[in-house]
What does this fold into?
Amino acid sequence: MSNLSNSWNAFSPDIAEQYLKTYGHPSVSSKALLVDVLKQYTASVAKPSVIDLGCGNAQIGEFFIEKNFDCVYTGVDFSDVLLDVGRRVLPNANFIKDDVNTLGLIQGRYDIALYSHVVELLSSPEESLAAAKRLSDIVVIRFYEPPEFETDTTELKWMDVGNEQQVPFLRRKMSRDYYRMVLAKLDCKQVDIYRDATKDQVHVLLF
It folds into this structure.
């Protein structure tokens, strides 16, 4: 498990800069859908506060600026190398180093708690979602692997971090039953689901 944790601090500086911008599938259409959803649910707030849980290098925060979504952005991650990039590209944003599985260091309340392609990477999604509920009455999840599987599975994947090095990470495929159980335990009042042309989905959990 320590090797898995260390994966997210293993990026070379140039790969950390480009992570999820060119690496893998950027899912531009679902990022645009995400922004539309966030604007819809914060339409009554002049400058909503958004906490991006598992922000990485803050590429979603950059996309917010590109799409004119004016918000008070806070990024949370436990990777120093990715947070360093975020602080450089978004100097006016807030960044906090914390474990997204537990979110034990985060205080305060936010208009939106956001996971963007992150829940699938968590070892403790139930614990993390319970902590996110403490931060906001609206939790938005952008899924790369929507919870539509019959059984839970976890894959060991490999990620190119530069310098001809690959490191392991986990990707979860969540079952419908587990997802429903978690939402029921958290007393989620409503789930609004938005789909784009790819398999990505945006879920809005209302508490």
